[in-house]
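ARCHIVE ENTRY
Sequence with per-residue C-alpha cells
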Amino acid sequence: MLRLFVALDLPSPARDALARFRGVAADPSLWRPVAAESFHVTLAFLGARPGEDVERVAQVLRRLDPWSAPRLALGDALLLPSRAARVLTVAVVDPEGGLGALQAQVSAALAVAGVFAPEARSFRPHVTVARLRSGARPPRALQAKPEALQFRAGPVTLYRSVIGRGGAVYEPLFARGG
C-alpha cells in the first residue's frame, strides 16, 4: 500500500516567501518545520492505496481539461483545525476561482475512477509550513503575517508520502501541466 495525494505545486518565489514566514512564525520549541521543497496545496488526499492505483491516478491527471496555471496569492496565516490547532498554515487566495475549479475537477475525476471519496467539507486551499510538536500547546493567535505575494501555480502532481522519523517525505510519481 502506498500513501498517495494529488497536489498543486508552488513556484520557487512562493516557497521562498512561505519559508521566510515559517522562519518568523514557527517557534521551534512548538513547531516542527515542513521543508520548503515539500510546500504544496493538497487537491485530493487519497490515503493508503494499492500500487496499481498510481497508473489509474496518472490516467485521470492526463485527461484533465486543458488548463492554465491558476493565478493565486498568499493569504493570512491560519492555525488548523481552528479548535485544536495541529498545523501552522498559510491560506492561498484564489481570486479568479481557477484553483477551486481545478480542485473540483480533480476530485470528481478521481471519484469516478474509484480511487477517491470526496470530503464533505468544502475545499480550503492552504499550505502547511509547520506541524505542532508532540505535547506542545498551540498559540491562540499569530503575530507574524506572510508577505503579500501573487504567483502562478505549478503542475498538478501525484505524490507518494513516506512517513519517517524526521517527518513525511514526498516523492513525485507523476506531474501534469504547469
